[in-house]
Amino acid sequence: MAVRVPLLLACVLALFVMDVSAEEVSKLIVEPNVETDRMGDVDVPGGDVLAKMHASQYILRAADGKLTNVPASRALLPHSDGMNPQSVQVDIGPMSEIYVRQSEVFCKSTDDGKTWTARPIKLPPELKLGFRWKVLRDGTFISVGCSIGNVVDEPAVVWASHDEGLTWEKWAEIAIDDLPLPSGRPYVQRYVHRGLNRLRDDTLIWGIDVRDDPYTKGMALYAFQSTDGGKTWQGPTLVRDRGASEGATVRLPSGRLFATMRMGVMVHPSDPPLLLKYTQKVASAPFNGRNRIKNLFVMDSEDNGRTWNTPRLLTTVFGQTFGYPAVQSDGTVVVIHDTRYGPGPPGSRAMISRDEGKTWLDEVYYLDSTKFTGSYTASVMLEDDTILTIAGSSQSGNTWEMVSSKTDLYAIRWKPVKK
Fold first, then answer.
1. How far apart are the first and last CA of the chain?
2. Under 8 Å CB-to-CB from 346, ≥6 apart: which residues?
3. pLDDT in tens, 21-72
4. Where are the domains of the chain?
5. pTM score, whole prediction
């Protein structure tokens, strides 16, 4: 069933939100309790140290002025040609099976990610770009896909599979043409960087960001939500009116939703002056960084995603952008983010919060080593609170041509140290 809000009404609603709470919709909190350039009072490890770790059964923890090894299990998934370091997708099934979709193979583990099998992938028919999938608690695979790019307005298509993705049936459509920009203008580009999220109660949240051309004129992030296995969808909900994309959402033990998002727009005149401190490009960044946000923010929702509080800056270094959250049963929140331009070599780093993401420890975990800036991860939480992180890694270079068909995925089983 498609959910459609008439364009005029959607524009009125969007403008109403902007008129009534423009400061809240656009406001950013940029006073982090820790800075992420040199965490744990330890210099970032060099490339040789990270490469040795990458080939070993441990990860590195920087805390209290010491760099220590933390035992971890690291397994290489079957290789898939055509895979790139930003296409990591993972979910867990009803019998604790773990599924990872790669470009040409579909991987499965029945022993918590220690070993993996693979078979050729089967995609839904009439697949268009933006395909994302999750696994419901009854084993149903749900996929949402749509066309992306310039001047497209056809609906997203929801597919369902009851045989682990071997065959698919059309489940629903989501109308996504009436998503106005904050100005009230219709969008001219759309993308699905956030993809599909599944909460532990099987609530599905699918995000789409829309843009003007050029995107600096206006951007908005919308979300649709389903509570019946993807058959019907509620929305759209305007999440943010600025360049919020790439991230994920989890439900905390308190019931609140916690989300990460990448901000990738120019600094707005109304932004706090302190933000400029964290938006200056680092020496190795290849392009314009001055007065541009390229950092990771986090935010919460008290009402199941209908509204979100003011985003809070998490990473204080330009180029620490994509972040994926996971939450343990005691409320410990872990966010694994990339570091594109330094300090130190690129790779995945994990930050820790003991209070459901309100404050963050001056502590960091180094999970993998890669030569490609912008390698992404995705994680699931196992029953014993072990975090299973799937990390994209390429050792061949730092261009899309170099990493095409030369990207490997690693399954890293680990836990943050409890004090």
1. 49
2. 338, 339, 340, 370, 371, 372, 373, 374, 375, 398
3. 444 456 899 999 999 999 999 999 999 999 999 999 999 999 999 999 999 9
4. 1-30+123-241, 35-91+246-419
5. 0.91
